[in-house]
Amino acid sequence: MKEHRGKKVRRDEGDYVWKFPIQPDATSPVYDDPMVEMIRSFLADLLRLGCLTREGKRVDVDGFQFANDPKTVYRIFPKNGTGEKLSGEK
Amino acid sequence: MKSPDTSSRKDDCRNLVMTASIKEAAKGLDPEMRQGIGGLVKNFREKVLPVIDLESGGEVVRIDGIFVRREPGTQRPGTAAPSSKAKVSTEGYDKLASYQSQEPRLVMLGNFLQHTIQCTELQSEGKKVEIDGFRLKNLPFWVRYPQPRVLDNLGEICSWCSCSCEICFLKGTATEYTKKAMLSVVEARTRAKYFSTEKKLGLPVGHAQPGEPFLNPRIMDILRIARNAEPGLLLDITTNADFLTEKVIQELAGLKPISIVVSVNSANGPLRRKIMRSNHAEVAIKAIPLLREEGIQFVGSIVGPASVPVEDIAETARYLDRYSALQVRLLLPGFTRFHPKEVAFDTLPRWGDIVKTAQQLRQEFSTPIMIQPGFFWNQDISAVLDGIYRNSPAERAGLKFGDRIVEIDGQIIITKAEASDLLRVTLEERAQRGCFRRSLKVERGDEILEVELRDDSSVEDDFYPYKPAGYGLCDRSFRGQYFGIHLIDGFRLESLKTIKESIDKHPGARRVLLFTIPLVKNLFAQAAMIVGHSPEFKLDPAELRVTVAEQRFWGGNIMIGDLHVAQDYIDHILMLEKRGYRPDLVLIPRSFVGEWGFDVLGRSYSEIERKTGVPVELLTNVRVMM
């Protein structure tokens, strides 16, 4: 039994359930590789919510690279609107 | 086929198990990449799955295996249909995008899941599962969103409307971030159950289109849930009154304290039927005297589209005054580019006619007349009284519309905002109960009057409409301001300090562009004249340029800052740049975005800087309610 506001309540007893479908992204993917696209999309969402900082100061980022391929830079926000497919930039 | 390495089933990111069927494709998989992705997904499982459940076909599934694919998987999000075993259809799903403004991390979670299922294989008890949804669990964790009352945390009671007003502001405003809601009793009960009245925190609320709450067949049950959760607090409802029959009003009386905003629009039945396309015009009109009879406080709201003669607006206002409305609210009509062309009208003459009508009516009766947007007609930031409620301490003390407060309890008052702050009854005062007092000095013409305001009413006392019987000194919003003095929300001098502080964050900025709206520009100039020479407000060496962005998205005659979208600002900055002015810094009042910085279209304000290359500061504490 869980406690809430001093009362013991059975978990989910008669509670409304908030359910969300997992839906396809309305925008076209920027990168074909789904693993790259997952990271890009995650970073883009993150940067819409806030910003990254270093020692308390804001750091602007616009791309990322993987440790095993430092020559390839992937853009977080596509330059020319959504749907632009990029293979990565060197 | 079983994986050859069954000892690794516990998701150790260093030993990710590949099923035999995709082993061949995975030969080229880089171990560091697998490790990184696996770590991310493992983290997700440990940190996020305690507060959400994953679903497949409408049923919760427990994931005990996550395998990273090298190649995209066969499942695409949103393609898994509910299984025949599912107890609920996909129609029972909430709209994730509607939570963007209050909890964008939930939307981010949905996006993450959407991508994850494309490059992982999820298993439950050794079997592959196709995830197509998720649900919140551990609801106490999700009680983290500030709301003043349970009623606010219920969200919209019903998104549909029984009318189709010719200039309804909802026409053409549907966005992907808005949902249509019909609140169920189960949801209302759950929200009330978990709401923390002590911390004023509740469950997340998705943004829903407002509508007519009495179209919800369970409205009374829902209101009772809110009433039982917070017995003393004022419940307020906005309604077109099409369904406020005598029986319904009597039931509402049992839920006091309750305050109703009635969208009357016209007290003339045939005209009301025409402009609102209402089939229950007579019910709505008759509701007014019934509300008075039952001692329920109400505000009468009138939108005056161009097709309604100003004489009818005046007659409707008189009708409301006859039955002691707390306030008559005149909404200066607006239209957007989404409205039919025939709805458009010449704004300034029409608004001017309505304001003139209101000024004449103020000579006739004492019910306060509020015009929105207030700053269209009231450009004075000093503490001039905008209205006095009937049967209020202010009325008993002899205060009148147009008096100017110059001192409260010995403190000199310059602006409306200062006066409102000092008139507000504090939590400490409320805790002590008893009598609430203020001593005022008020300017009336050439005279200075000294006035004592006292509110020592008890719950049983009847000072309708200011404080009807059965109403305590509830936490009133803009309507019943303390002591019965109504002041429209004023420009705060602190806003200038906020501007300076924002500029100081960018020491190199010389050309600073400040966005405002036409109705506030003059107020800003007045404030600058009052305090501009004070060192704490000086902006040197920066040069401040004040500008107004066109409302391109909404068009029409919309001129409220809260409705600008990020693209409006982007377009304006780029336009100025083409004309040879490139700012070093842009300042924008943050009223056009929500808490997380998203505009009404769900676009982040950070896009402005990204698209223009100019740093943007949102001005907090710079918001003027219209």
Cα distance, first to last residue of chain A? 56 Å
- Beta-strand percentage range of chain A: 25-35%
Strand content of chain B: 15-25%
What summary fits the major beta sheet of chain A? Answer: 2 strands, antiparallel
* pLDDT averaged residue by residue of chain B: 85
Helix segment tally of chain B: 18
* Helix-strand pattern of chain A: EEEHEEEE
By secondary-structure content and strand pairing, the structural class of chain A works out as alpha+beta
Total DSSP E strands of chain B: 23
The quaternary organization reads as: heterodimer
The N- and C-terminal alpha carbons of chain B lie at a distance of: 67 Å
Mean pLDDT of chain A: 77
Helix content of chain A: 10-25%
Notes on the protein architecture:
The complex is a heterodimer of chains A (90) and B (626). Chain A has one helix at 34-49; strands at residues 2-4, 7-9, 19-21, 52-54, 57-59, 63-66, 69-75. Chain A is α+β, with helices and mostly antiparallel strands and 90 residues long. In chain A, the strands form three sheets. A two-stranded antiparallel ribbon of chain A has the order 1-2. In chain A, strands 4-5 form a two-stranded antiparallel sheet. Chain A is extended and about 55 Å long. Chain B contains 18 helices and 23 strands. Chains A and B meet through strand 3 and helix 1 of A and helix 2, helix 3, strand 6 and helix 5 of B. Strand 3 of chain A pairs antiparallel with strand 6 of chain B.
